[in-house]
Amino acid sequence: MNEENQDRSFHTYIRGIILIGFALLMLAMIITGNIRFYIAPKMMPFIYFATVVFLFLGALQIIRSSKKEEEEYCDCGEDHSITGRPITKILIYSIFVIPIVAGFVVPDRALDSSVAANRGIQYGSGILTKPTDYDPAQTEQNSLSRAEAFLEDSDQYMRDLEEKILGEDHEPEYYEAEDYFTEEEYNQFYEELRSDLLQEEKIIITDENYLDIMTVLDLYLPDFLGKQVEILGFVYREEEFEDNQLVVARFAMTCCVADAAVFGTMVEADYANEYENDTWVRVNGTLGESTYGEFRIPLIHLQGIEVVDEPDNPYVFPSFR
């Protein structure tokens, strides 16, 4: 085998090793369960598929690298030799090797308050909070409510929101609301959930119903004032918080950590400053309301708080009902 074919075989072998390296990294995360820190459960079938494909392609590349010289020619008339300086080749391969090494070496951990500080936190369900001039007696008639704006014309609401955040010249790229629910289904689901929650002696917010209950509280908060509530999350504070204020927060993930957003519920208690950021707590209290910025938000008047371990899955996920 001449030098050119040796060089080509070597690069083919390295590519096979890289593919198998990615497959082993994903396999290790699946076995240890650490994949939960990066991927939503509904994306796991794609991870399984990718792991199998990477293993297959990696093995195929290694087999190809051992072929004899006469088997390397494809008779296409093109030169398939690897060109470039050695340092260039090393830099290119390092782009793929470094993430694999880092994946095995760097400890896996959930997103925390430092990420929340960079991304910003959304109170309640994020898009359905009421303005501060909201009149509880006029819940469904308040035309200034962002909830009603969303329900009245969800497509236009999303366009206006995207223009506000990204600018008028931004090319719109988003899913239509109808991809997940119709307006009638949206109203019916949350109206039924509201009725069910009102019959409960205590509202227990779990990983499964977290975002749905946050949305109900934003839509019908006056109906729940004084209601007992229990919620689990990590402690987070904004710089402008008073000593008696903290937020019980959770990261919500749709597909992966890249789209993770922080949702939080305000808590007030005389001893709130005793709990440091990122401390996981289970909070019990009564629901009230407060203002933050120009919006009214749910508020928990603290009656009891318990420090707990970080849950097996620290994130919550939308139901898209």
Mean pLDDT: 78
Provide the gyration radius in Å: 26 Å
Question: Order of strands across the biggest sheet?
Answer: 4-5-6-8-7
Approximately how much helix is present in the residues? 40-55%
Strand and helix order: HHHHHEEHHHEHEEEEEE
Q: What are the segments in which pLDDT stays under 50 over at least 5 consecutive residues?
A: 127-144, 172-181
Termini, distance in Å? 62 Å
Class computed from helices, strands and strand pairing: alpha/beta
By DSSP (H or I, 4+ residues per run), the number of helices equals 9
Largest sheet descriptor: 5 strands, mixed, barrel
Number of beta-strand segments: 9
Number of domains: 2
Report the principal-axis shape: elongated
Residues in β-strands, percent: 15-25%
Description:
This protein has about 325 residues and is an alpha/beta fold. Helices cover about 40% and strands about 20% of the residues. The protein folds into 2 domains: about 5-105, no CATH class; about 115-315, no CATH class. It has 9 helices and 9 strands. Strands 4-5-6-8-7 form a 5-stranded mixed beta barrel. A hairpin with an 8-residue loop joins β5 (about 245-250) and β6. The model is unreliable at about 125-145 and about 170-180 (pLDDT under 50).
